[in-house]
Amino acid sequence: MRCRSATGERTSRAHNYNDNFLVSLPKVYSNSLHFCSKAALAFFCDLCGAMTVDEMNSPLLTRDSLKWRSVVGILWYLLILCDCYNLDVEHPLVFHGPNGSLFGYSVLLHQHAEDSWLIVGAPVADSSFYPHTKNPGAIYNCSVWSSQCEQLPVGGVRHCGRHCLAENDNQWLGVSLSRHPSKGHVLACGHRWKNVYYSSRDNQNKLPHGVCFRLSPDLKHANHIIPCYKDHQRKFGEGYGSCQAGISNLFTEDLMVMGAPGTSYWTGSVLVYNTTSNISAAYVDDDSEVLYGSYLGYAVSAGHFLDPQSTEIVGGAPQHEQTGKAYIFRIEGNTLKIVAKTKGKELGSYYGASVCAVDLNADGLSDLLVGAPMFSSVREEGRVHVYINQGEAKLKEADFELVGSDSYAARFGETIMNLGDIDDDGYPDVAIGAPQEDDLHGAIYIYNGRRSGIAQSFSQRITGSLLGDNFRMFGQSVSGGVDVDSNNYPDVAVGAFLSDSAVVFRTRPVVKVDAVMLLPESLNRSIAQCTENGLPAVCVKVKVCFRVGGKQIPGNIELKYNITADVHHKDGFPSRFYFSGNGTSNVTAGRVKAKHEQLTCATHQAFMKKDVRDIFSPIHFEVKYKLGEHRVLQRDSGGLPSLKPILQQKDEHGNVVKNNTIFARYCSWENCSTNLQVSAHLVLPQSYRNMPYFALGNGKSIMLNTTLVNIGDDAFLPKLYLRFPSNLHFIKVLEEDKYISCEIAEENKVAIGLDCNVGNLYIPPFSKINITFLLDVMQNSSAGNLNININATSENFENTDLQHDNVAVLTLALRYAVDLNVHGFVSPTSFLIGKQESVPVDCYPEKFNYTYKVMNIGPSKALDARVKISLPLMLVPYKYQLIRITDLQTTLGHCFQRNNSVQVIDDCDIPEASFIQELVFFFSPKSKRIMFCGPEDKTCRMVECHFGDLEVGKEVTITMEVELNPRVLQMSPGRHAVMMIRGMLDLISPVKNADTILLQDDVSARVSLEALYSNKPVMAVQIFLIVSSLIVGLMILALLVLALWKLGFFERKLKEEKFDQDSWDYVPKKESVS
User: Fold this and answer.
1) Are residues 776 and 759 in the same domain?
2) Cα–Cα distance list, 432 to 284, 343, 477 (Å)
3) Mainly resides where (predicted)?
4) CATH of residue 794
5) Shared domain check, 928 and 991
6) Is the pLDDT of residue 73 over 60?
7) How many structural domains comprise the chain?
8) Counts for the chain of helices (H) and strands (E), in that order
9) pLDDT at 645
């Protein structure tokens, strides 16, 4: 089906293409060169006589190529302007119209009998036939043979109805053109034609109904059609009063389709007139499916969406919800019913400004292309959406969009036209216009239909600059589907209305080539089948055959080709074959002259080099071909020069033929299957409770011992693929003499493992290779289990059921191995209690310095190291405070005292022991009491220290100044002769878990402070002892005296005393008695 896009003055959000608006669009960047393939560029060079692609890319130009260097600059400029396929750009047919007439706003290729014309619309031209009408627009027919244009006598409406008065001024005749596919009738419309009947009588608004003219195939007769006129219709906007019919139109075999975007306050509609049944139909929005201001009918098309025999209508509504929609309608009587719809994705993209129903994949059902010319990633680059018909109008959007050159402000997709099959591949091709590309010079893009739908890349790009700097808005209108030069290929016309010009590009004949390359199934390298220089040689006979076809091509077509032997030989190894006469080159060239639809073949011998070791990988051959020199026969084409044929572009691999063969081998296993087996284990430097692990930070390496065994046939180019996390680092392979070479495998520039070549080309059957990899762990690694995957492969076939042992998975346990050394001491280590003081000066007279040291001796750092220090706070069961910490310091991190949940009494007035308690304690045997703290003892003072991550070799010192109230220790009951106050340091973190191993089961330190009770009793006891001793002594003395008295001891003594007294009286005191 033919496709039409809306062309003409836009309503509401209009494209008013005036100079001020257009020139204000700056050019941001130039378009770069685009080619589908190197072959496409080579063909262009063949056409123009320039260098080939390889010559251009070669660092050393040959002498023959140097003489063309002066030409290359000019050709390169032309390449930028046009990516060539088979639209001929060397002999364009250029037509010009009156200045300022917008000549070229619409174009239409037309053919009748033996005549071929280009019909051109000029919407603001003056009419030669209606001189009193102001700028009604005109239709020109231009002869393809003479390049002369003349105005057709069409454009005046005199009688239009009972309540109709025509105003032909500014009607924009030529805003859209279409042609009956077979009969050749032409439909030309002017959407701004107005009915002024009511405005001239009642001073109401003019009614822009729009008018279309149906011209006969010979363009001599015309009838006007005003599809929106109705008697008594007088209000602007309501119903069809301002429908602007004909802003877009399409002619099919039975239908005339006209867009009417102004209907019902610019909701829009699509009008259809059946030329066979004379029945009119229109879309009536009874269900409010289409919103006000949607501009339905801005673009129209028609195709076979439900069935290959049915015809459905397509209408674009670019303003629907500001994102745009496209609708597919079926005709039911005199109404159109929606059967499918598609929706735009971006606000303001004008999705639906152009629509084209075309059977891209030639399956009999129409597919749909929808343009969104104002789609913006930067500004109005434009997009075309592709929908493939799955049957019954179920459209599946392609996973790509057509983008052209993605140029700034190009408005790619403004026009989409079905050109027919211009490259003779059986699939229709389309042209897409980008009229504002390249600073308003414009461009068109040719996209080829394919079995899958449509090629994602364009095959040809033609810019307005190719035709001269004066061409502007090239690509606003496009026409195709008509063969104007009778070479059996449809040609293409393009309008450039801002320069009042139009161009016809003729289509070059396409040469279709079917090529094949024949090779033997296998090559026996022990049998010499050829001779070279008189000596037997092993060779491969390469036979290449060509069959050429196509329309309007010369009798003999010369094909040039290059054959490359052993294309995919292994990296690092030379090609195993060469062609005689080229030394050691594996490339040879040839040429054949092929006749139309006849098979033409040529045979070449590729010789095997000596000492070929790679007999396992296939031998790939490749043939690349292109058109050679050929003479073009001049034929009678009305004075137009004949066009050189061009080679048809292929969909995937271009003009390349590939085939391969293998070396004959004798194997023990089916399909010469290898059978690789891989096993591995890690040698780790540490073990904990019979579990090997790697201690983070120990600075040692890891050995990965791998064994690769082949118990099948030869394993050619065996490889080991090691995959491990990025925190493992490969150092080297210890077995350097075993042909082991490894490369770091990367993903997104991050090392993910190793790719290792094993053995010298291959591993023989029943061979074993031991490989040791030396690995290291990154310093910033964290604890956990790392998986190391080892996979063994080779180029040989290996049965699927034998591949289970090609993989080995190892787990590397990374752990933090922590060994903390803690100890502490106190100064002084003891003190006396129970000393008598007259008046206590300080409640806490005893001062002590506690010192603790924590050192990490490795091998790993201690994460979030924390310790807890506990000191008895009271003498249980009393609640009087025993100690207080006056200063707390650490050399790393910070320490703090925990809040006590038990209330203590901080008072100097400590209850003293009673006399009886003191007396009992004095006479009791000496004993010892140890005061210590439990894990979460509430009767103790808790100090917590946080060090952070404690590196290996780091030592932390904690100092505490502690004051003690000794009177608390003298409370009874509970005191002892020796009071041992034990302070504890315990490790809080790290703790033993899945990631951390504590090399010492008990990480703690005990510091003891002794309080020794004084031997001197209290004063009361002393007095009591003195008094008691005196009393007891007197009592003992009395008893002794009594006993002596009872024994008469005192009587005998008394008598002696009497005697002595009597004797003493007679002796002088100072005299001696002799």
Assistant:
1) yes
2) 31, 20, 9
3) membrane
4) 2.60.40.1510
5) yes
6) no
7) 4
8) 11, 69
9) 87
Residue 973 preceded by cis peptide, ω within 30: yes
Q: What is the CATH number of the domain that holds 831?
A: 2.60.40.1530
pLDDT at 640: 83
Q: Are 236 and 266 in contact (CB under 8 A)?
A: no
Gyration radius (Cα) of the chain, Å: 54
Domain boundary among 818, 845, 866: 818
Say if residue 836 is in the same domain as residue 982.
Answer: yes
CATH code of the domain containing 344? 2.130.10.130
d(CA 576, CA 610): 8
* 585 shares its domain with 695: no
CB 640 within 8 A of CB 684: no
pTM higher than 0.70, yes or no? Answer: no
- 710 and 797 fall within a common domain: yes
Tokens of 851: 């010192």
Stretch 920-935: mean pLDDT? 76
Higher pLDDT, 139 or 527: 139
Residue with tokens 């990367």: 746
Q: Is 370 part of a structural domain of the chain? A: yes
Q: Same structural domain for residues 614 and 546?
A: yes
For the chain, the residue count is: 1074
Looking at residue 69, its pLDDT comes to 39
Distance CA 125, CA 940 (A): 107
Q: Angle CA(65)–CA(71)–CA(76) in degrees, nearest 5?
A: 105
* Tens digit of each residue's pLDDT (9 = 90 or more) over 767-780: 888 889 999 988 88
Same domain, 891 and 811: no
Give the pLDDT band of residue 72 (cuts 50, 70, 90): very low
Measured CA to CA, the distance from residue 433 to residue 779 in angstroms comes to 60
Per-residue pLDDT reduced to its tens digit, 386-405: 999 999 999 999 999 999 99
Residue among 435, 405, 501 nearest 96 (CA)? 501
- Compute how many other C-beta atoms are within 10 angstroms of the C-beta atom of residue 762: 22
Whether residue 865 is contained in a domain is answered as yes
692 shares a domain with 590: no
Asked if the structure places residue 878 within a domain, the reply is yes
Residue 549 is assigned to a structural domain of this protein: yes
Q: Tokens for 563?
A: 């054959």
Domain that holds residue 742: 676-818
Among the ranges given (133-147, 239-253, 550-564, 940-954), the one the predictor scored with the smallest mean pLDDT = 550-564
Render pLDDT for 502-558 as a digit per residue (tens, 0 to 9).
Answer: 999 999 999 999 999 999 998 888 888 888 888 888 999 999 999 998 887 767 888
Handedness of CA 1038, 1044, 1050, 1053 (dihedral sign): negative
Q: 620: domain CATH number?
A: 2.60.40.1460
